[in-house]
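hey can u check if this looks right to u? its 220 residues, i copy pasted from the old doc so theres a chance i mangled smth
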Amino acid sequence: MGKEKHRHRIIGKLQRTPLWKKEEFSEIEYEPTPVKELLTEMKDISELIIDLAYSAVLLHNQEIAEEVRYLEVRMDKLNYDIRIMAMMAARSKEDAEQLAGILQIAQAAEKISNTAGDIILLMKENTEPVLPRILAKADERIYRLKVTEKSSGCNQTIGSLNIESETGMRIIAIRREDYWIYNPQSKSSLIANDIVIARGTDEGYKQLDEFFLGKKEDIK
């Protein structure tokens, strides 16, 4: 039951940045979990972790970097669970062949997680100015925006504003005072003074920035 709570805190929830070291050194306990749940969480993490890693380096934000480390450790534990499950479930050559595909998917997700951890190392190497120059040539970039009290987007959900369809910008995280909402969902609300981390183009950024600053009444 404790593990299930742990799982659902990761995506789209208001939370303080967790201490990854506590997670890393906590005792590993295997709990039988449907493989679909394990793979779903691994997919969610692999989609989110690279965006957060780039955000941490570009914005030089240590709190987001801590979350990347936490998710990397979490991915390792999920991979451990899925390997134990595979060993316990394989009773024949046919079972082993079917489970081999699942293990390959899990390994690919773990590689993505490890890559995100490597990106975070750039912050320690003091080479972060190099990455913005490289990404300056990319079509999509990471941006930091602030929702002001003047914006008509205050107290509205991301889905009701149609932010992605109208601007092409995808919100990957929201900072709210001392808390973060990672990978916010369409039902997640925006309030005044939220700091939004989003991915998209220069044109989409300008459009969304003007809306959040209250310079435009409508997001279109």
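The first helix runs from residue 2 to 8.
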